[in-house]
Design a protein that fits this description.
CATH architecture of the largest domain in chain B: Orthogonal Bundle
Largest interface: A-B, 37 and 49 residues
Largest sheet of chain B: none
Oligomer: heterodimer
Order of helices and strands of chain A: HHHHHHHHEHHHEEHEH
Number of domains of chain A: 3
CATH topology of the largest domain in chain B: Rna Polymerase Sigma Factor, Chain: A
CATH class of the largest domain in chain B: Mainly Alpha
Number of helices of chain B: 9
Strand order of the largest sheet of chain A: 1-4
Structural class of chain A: mainly alpha
Number of strands of chain B: 0
Radius of gyration of chain A: 36 Å
Shape of chain A: elongated
Structural class of chain B: mainly alpha
Number of strands of chain A: 4
Strand content of chain B: under 5%
Radius of gyration of chain B: 20 Å
Largest sheet of chain A: 2 strands, antiparallel
Helix content of chain B: over 70%
Helix content of chain A: 55-70%
């Protein structure tokens, strides 16, 4: 015995004459004894009437003033997108079809140019950059931030010995200004955490250390469980103030909390 | 063999839509297509933009079409699918249907009746707009625009069974939300 639920999906099709003969007969026989479904059918009829009577949208006259020009613009944009997609391969294919000599020359040139370009690229990447001492002396926080973004230079900077006096002064300044300058705060975070923080999604210093642990020259150190071992810039400052100001220290030792 | 050659030649002659021919197609169908897009996306500027993209697609794929009549079907199909994509993208930002009296023509007698009917239409459009994009498009094409199930399926690039699955879901959704209007009237 079929229930109303079995016919539920067929009722609107029944009311719009969209059912085949067999299911239509089944629905019709069900409707004889079911007032609720008959009511639904009436609702669907009424709904159909309303839908059919929905007014035709009238569009503003000026909407079509530059319509054709708009179409032409979109054709140009579509072509540009298509060309971008085809890109390099289309050029090579076209050259190959027209002139085998040109493709041979291009390939040869590319074979010569590619290692040169790669060598240049590698050199430019490994080119000497500002040392930590220079960055701290200039108070170049933005430079420090970008240097810390790069894994290799981060390790270099973390292990570079700098005078405690300089680090002390810089850290004091950094702590004071971190609320004002987002970039500096980001830079400081970058020193301590592995994440490439995006603007607008800034974790607090403490939170990032809690979540991520620390990155050091020897590798990644998972977040410590004990709250005491969470790095605190103020504590580090106190440590720095206590030691001989002419002693050379690295940020790494400071972060790891090793005795100085 | 001769007959086949003839039809092939005829097909070749019809094939390419020329630039003036294309301008004619744009002129002829722009109003109906923007109107259809307006029904689907509920915003005049978006409707115009989508219709223009549909014409651009037609021009870029003109080699695939045999004649202008086919061009119209192609345009409709492209437009409906562009509208569905637009609705899906817009879904994240919530519905934004325009229903201004100036956009809809109605010639009703008494002002009270007119006001009531406008209210009903507003509510009905809001209910339709809350449907999922594919269900919405199916319902508008079949129930509002009055296309057959076959035509609707063709425009949505799906099977007729697919249309007959989406239609009851859409209608049931709208019926439930419009219950107040349906029972009091």
């Amino acid at each position: 015995m079929k229930t109303c639920r079995d016919f539920e999906s067929l009722l609107s099709l029944f009311s719009n004459n969209e059912l085949a003969a067999e299911p239509r007969a089944a629905v019709a026989s069900h409707l004889v004894n079911c007032a609720a479904c008959r009511q639904k059918i009436e609702d669907y009829h009424e709904l159909k009437k309303y839908l059919f009577k929905l007014p035709t949208p009238e569009l503003p006259e000026n909407l079509f003033a530059d319509f054709h020009q708009g179409v032409l613009d979109k054709i140009a944009r579509s072509k540009a997108i298509q060309n971008q997609r085809l890109g390099f391969f289309a050029i090579v294919y076209a050259l190959y079809r027209r002139q085998r000599f040109i493709i041979a020359v291009t390939t040869l040139l590319m074979l010569i140019a590619l290692p040169t370009w790669l060598a240049h690229h590698r050199n430019s990447r490994s080119a000497p950059r500002s040392s930590l001492t220079q960055l701290l002396e200039r108070r170049d926080w933005t430079g420090l931030y970008y240097a810390m973004l790069d894994g290799n230079s981060r390790i270099r900077l973390l292990n570079e010995p700098v005078p405690a006096q300089l680090l002390n002064a810089a850290l004091a300044e950094l702590i004071k200004t971190q609320r004002d300058d987002k970039k500096i705060r980001l830079g400081l975070q970058q020193i301590l955490s592995k994440i490439k923080t995006r603007e607008g999604n800034v974790l607090s210093l403490r939170r990032s250390v809690q979540i991520l642990g620390r990155i050091s020259a020897t590798g990644y150190e998972p977040a410590p469980r004990s709250k005491q071992s969470i790095w605190n810039p103020e504590n580090s400052l106190l440590v720095l103030q206590r030691i001989d100001q002419n002693k050379a220290v690295t940020i790494n030792t400071l972060l790891l909390g090793n005795s100085l | 063999m001769e007959k086949r050659n003839l039809t092939e030649n005829n097909g070749e002659a019809k094939r390419n839509i020329s630039e003036p021919g294309f301008a004619g197609i744009v002129e002829q169908h722009q109003q109906s297509l923007v109107r259809l897009a307006f029904r689907l996306v509920g915003n005049a500027e978006d409707a115009k933009d989508l219709a223009q993209w549909a014409f651009a697609r037609l021009w870029l794929n003109r080699d695939r079409l045999d004649n202008e009549r086919e061009a119209f079907y192609y345009l409709r199909k492209i437009l409906v699918n562009l509208c569905i994509d637009h609705l899906r993208r817009r879904g994240q930002h919530g519905p934004e249907v325009e229903f201004d009296e100036e956009h809809f023509s109605s010639n009703l007698a008494s002002p009270l009746h007119q006001l009531e009917t406008q209210e009903l239409h507003k509510e009905l459009l809001r209910c339709i707009d809350e449907l999922k994009p594919k269900q919405k498009a199916t319902m508008i094409l079949r129930d509002v625009e009055g296309y057959s199930v076959e035509e609707t399926a063709e425009m949505l690039a799906c099977t007729q069974n697919n249309v007959l699955c989406n239609l009851p879901l859409a209608r049931e959704n709208v019926r439930r939300k419009m219950q107040q209007w349906l029972t009091t009237d």
